[in-house]
Amino acid sequence: MTFRKLAAAALLVPALALASCSGGDGAAEGASDPSADGDGATLRIGTSGTLPSWASEDAHVGHTLFPYQAPYDSLIRRDENGELQPMLATSWEYDETRTALTLELRDDVTFSDGAAFDADAVKANLEHFQQDALRQASQLAALDSVEVVDAATVVLHLTDPDPAFEFNLSQAAGLMASPDSVGTPEADTVPVGSGPYVMSESETVAGTQVVFTAREDYWAPELQEFERVEFRILDETSARLNALQSGQIDVTILDATTIDQAEGAGFEIVDDYQVDWHGLILMDRDGDLNPALGDVNVRQAINYAVDREALVEQNERGHGTATAQPFGPESGAYVEELDERYPHDPEKARELLAEAGYADGVTISVPLVPGWDAMHAALRQQLSEANITLESVPAQMANIFGDIGQQKLEIFYFNFFQSEPWVNVQQLLAENTLYNPFETADPELTALIEELQAAPDGDSIAQEINEYVVENAWFVPLYRLDQVVAYDSDAIDVVKQPQQAFPSMYNFTPAA
Amino acid sequence: MLTFIAKRVVSGAILLLVICALAYTLLFFSGTNIARNLAGDQATEEQVAYRAQELGLDRPLVERFFSWLASAASGDLGTSWFTAQPVTATIGDRLPVTLVIVTVSILLTALVAAAIGVAAAVRGGWVDRAVQVGSIAGDIVPNFVLALALVIIFAINLDVFPAVSTIAPGAPPSVWIASLTLPVIAIVISAVTGSTQQFRSAVLAQLEKEYVRTLRSRGIGEGEILFAHVLKNAAPAGLTVLSLQFIGMLGGVVIVEKIFSIPGIGSTAVSATSQSDIPVIMGVVIATVIIVIIVNLLVDIANGWLNPKVRVS
Hints:
Chain B: This is ABC transporter permease. By secondary structure, chain A is an alpha+beta fold.
C-alpha cells in the first residue's frame, strides 16, 4: 500500500512501453565491434547526410557520389590524380567533330542480379538518366542518342561538343545499374550494380546505417580492398567526431572548428585538400534589383573591401586559402595571379564607389541563411569600412534555390564546387543556369564560352574566361575551403580525390 | 468512467483532425520550393515543373489535403519525398526508440524526483536547502551540455558506452541498453531537477492542511500520515507535473537524439522539417499528437482512480 500512490505514475507505462526489443540477429552488435568481422578488413565511414535513395539516378556531386561507388561501377574511373582511367569502358574516342564518342566496353562484367553488362545496358542507363528530368539530366544535356553497335561497342551522339562529357561519365552520369533495376522502385532501397560491394539488406537500416559486403568474383579485385563497408549516417559534426573518437567509425568528414580536436586525439587529416570555394555571387550584375550592382566599379569595390586573409583566420581558423577567382588550382582555368587580384584596400573601394557615383555609399541585401551568421557579421563589419552597408534578409535554406531562380535575391553566398572548367562554366556562367538567374551575358564572354565548348584542350580559353569574370567582378570569391577528412591511420589509409568533397571509394585501403 | 473516456477519445480525434489541417496548411504556406530542392540546384525549370507535377504540388491545397487525409485515414501516410521510404515504416521504426527513451526517463524521473522531493519537504533543514540548491544548479545546465559531458567521460575516455547509437530494428536488448543509457541519464538529470521542486511543494502544501494536524492529534504515526494520506492527496499534482514533463521530453529529446545520433522520431522530425518533407512531417505530427492525447487520457484516468472527485467533474 505504501508506495502505491507514487507508483501510480507507472500507469502511464503499459500503453506506451512498446515491445521494441524483440530478439535480433546481433548485427548491430557486430557493427560496433570492428574486430568481430572475421578475416577481412572493414571500412566504417561516418557520412554527413541521408542519401535520397540508392538508385543511381539520385547520385550527384560531392558527398552524394562516393557512397554509390560501393554498389555501382562507372563507365570511366577518375583516379586519385584526376586522370580518367578505363573502368566499364576500356577505351573511348571522339570523332573529329567531337560530337560522336565511341566507347569500347568490357565483356566480362555482370550485375549483382546476374544480368550481363553490355551496350544495351549502357543505352538503358543513359537514356533513363536523360529522360525523366532527373538530377543527372544536366550532366547529359548534350547527349542526343545512344547507338548500340555491338554488345561491346556503343556510340554516344552529342548535339554539340561538350568538353566535360567524359568527365561526367566518370561521375554520377556514368554509374551503371542493372537494366532490370533501372527506374524501378526497388532500386531506391536496394542498388543493383556491377560494383565491388553488394548491400547486406538484413543489416541495413534506412537513415541509420547501410552495410555492404564484398562481391564474390568482382572483375576488378584491385578496387575491392575491404570485406565490409559500413556507412553510419551521422548528421551532426559533433556526433561524427564523437563516433570517430570512441572507435565506432574509421573515417569521417569534419570542419575547421573540430580539426584541432581530431588532431589532438591522434587522428590523421587528409591534407592539402580543397574542393569548394566560399564566397558571394553578385547575381544582380545587370542591376535589375539594385542598380548599384550593375556598375562594375561597385562590384570591384566589394572585392577590394573584403579582407580575405582575416576571414580565413576568423571563420576557418586558418584552414583555407584566400582567393579572388572562382576556378580552382586543379582545373585548367586557374591563373595563380588572380588569387591576389583584389588585395584588401578599403580606400580603393571607396574611390571606386565615388567613381560610380556612390560617394555616400551603397546598400546591398544578402540572404542570411542559418549557419552563416559568423561569416555574415564579419563581412558586414569589413564592408562597412568601405561605405558598403550589408543588409540581411532572413532566408531559409529550404527556399533559397527557389528564391534565386525567381530573381528575388541580389547576392548569394555559399560554398561552390570547383570542378573542370566546362562544368563550372555550366554551373556558374551559362545563361540558363540557376546561379546566373538574371541571365547576364556579354558578347565577349559568350564568344569565349563557345570557343571553349569546341576546343579539345581549352585551358588557355578557360583561363581567359576566368580573367573575364574576375575582372568584371561577377563574384566575390573569398577563399578555398580546406576539406577536413579525418581518419584513424591505425585502421585505414586514405588518398584524397581532387575535386571531390569526400575521397572515392577506391581511395581507401586497409592500414598496412 | 466509460462515458468520460469516450468523450475524451472523441475530443482527441477532433483535436487531431484540426491539428493536421493546420499543420498541412502552414506547410503549404511556408513557401518552400520543394520541387526545386528535389531536382537539385542545376535542374532546369522544366525539370522542376516535372517534379512538382509528380508530387502533385500543382494541385490546389484543399484537394491535396483531402486526398492525403483519405489515405491517412486508411493507414497510408504516403512516401517520404526525400528518402523514398514509406512514412508508416519510418515512424514504425523510429517511434519505439523515442518512446523507450522517454518512458524510461519519465519512470526514473518519477522515482527519483518523488523521493528527493518528499525528503526535502518532510525533513526540511539542510536537506531541503541542499535540494533547492541542487535543483537550481541542475536547471542552469542545459541537457545538451550534460549529454556532451557524458559522451566525453563515458564514451570517449572510459569507453564503456558507445558515443553514437548502434540501435537498429531487431537489435538485442543489450544494444538498446548500451545505446540508451547515456541519453537517458542526460534527460533524467534535467527532468529531475525540474520535477523535484513540484513534488516538494505539493507535499508541503498537504502537510500544512488541517487534516494532517487532526491526524497527528489522534496520535497516528508520521509514517502512516505521510504514505497513507499526504502522498495520496499530493499524487494528482505530481502526476500532472510528470505528464507535462513527458510531453516536454518528447520535444526535448530532439537535441539528445541528435547528439547521440539516435534513430528516433526527434531526429526524423528535424531532418524532415529542414527539407520540408511534408509526408514525413505530417506523420510525425500525427504520431506525436496521438501520444499526447493518450498520455493526457491516462493521466486523467489515474487521477480519477486516486481521487473520485475528479470523475464527477
